[in-house]
Amino acid sequence: DAGVIQSPRHEVTEMGQEVTLRCKPISGHDYLFWYRQTMMRGLELLIYFNNNVPIDDSGMPEDRFSAKMPNASFSTLKIQPSEPRDSAVYFCASTRQGGPGSGELFFGEGSRLTVL
Amino acid sequence: DQQVKQNSPSLSVQEGRISILNCDYTNSMFDYFLWYKKYPAEGPTFLISISSIKDKNEDGRFTVFLNKSAKHLSLHIVPSQPGDSAVYFCAASDSSYKLSFGAGTTVTVRA
């Protein structure tokens, strides 16, 4: 089975530009999470969806960040405008309710964002 | 405000010896705890978990201990192997699917 697929793997952009990160969860998983990893704070939850509906976006740093999940197989995290402090690795993860290993998240390989 | 804390950013251990990683949490509603392992340029992968109704869970060389009264858990790796060199994240949840992670501990196993 294919794992969680994220794109792009690396993104270098200039301050003020729009950044869109993409995620395809594991087929059959009904929960999708966006995490951000920084040296100082480790893995921070930004937002998560259940059945394509945002459940908790309290971790989204500010209005510059937005996330959508138009269908069960695709999600985007958008930053507009981007700032240097947004530089981090962004992970997407998915899981399914009540399945084997319920509660375990399956992570993608991450998107490393550098904002100059 | 971090609810899961890993106070040791790094740990160096000799091959064959025991690695002990520690994790503290503040939220008394947490009832499920997990450890994830992460290699460079890869996503975290699940390693082992424990429910709050247990105080120990063992899987091969990996054992997780939970002390609910102290709000503390630890991961023991014995014997440590070079392939265990990675970043280890402690995580906790409160019966939801939302995991709170610690900042991670980088383990280096010396040959």
Secondary structure elements and their pairing?
The complex is a heterodimer of chains A (116) and B (111).
Chain A: E1 5-7, E2 10-13, E3 19-24, E4 31-38, E5 42-50, E6 53-56, E7 65-71, E8 74-79, E9 88-95, E10 106-107, E11 111-115
Parallel strand pairs in A: 2-11
Antiparallel strand pairs in A: 1-3, 3-8, 4-5, 4-9, 5-6, 7-8, 9-10, 9-11
Chain B: E1 4-5, E2 10-14, E3 19-25, E4 32-38, E5 45-51, E6 56-59, E7 62-67, E8 72-77, E9 86-93, E10 100-101, E11 105-110
Note the overall shape of chain B.
Answer: globular
Major sheet attributes of chain A: 7 strands, mixed
Low-pLDDT stretches of chain A are none
Largest sheet of chain B: 6 strands, mixed
Overall average pLDDT of chain B: 94
* Class by SSE composition of chain A: mainly beta
Strand content of chain B: over 45%
Fraction of residues in H or I helices of chain A: under 10%
Poorly predicted residue ranges of chain B: none
What does this structure look like?
The complex is a heterodimer of chains A (116) and B (111). Chain A has 116 residues and is an all-beta fold. Helix content of chain A is 0%, strand content 53%. Chain A is built from no helices and 11 strands. The N and C termini of chain A lie far apart (37 Å). The N and C termini of chain B lie far apart (38 Å). With 111 residues, chain B is mainly β. Chain B is 0% helix and 54% strand. The radius of gyration of chain B is 13 Å and the shape is globular. The model of chain B has no long low-confidence stretch (mean pLDDT 94). Chain B has no helices and 11 strands. In chain B, strands 2, 4, 5, 9, 10 and 11 form a 6-stranded mixed β-sheet that branches. A 5-stranded antiparallel β-sheet of chain B has the order 1-3-8-7-6, with no helix packed on it. Chains A and B meet through strand 4, strand 5, strand 9 and strand 10 of A and strand 4, strand 5, strand 9 and strand 10 of B.
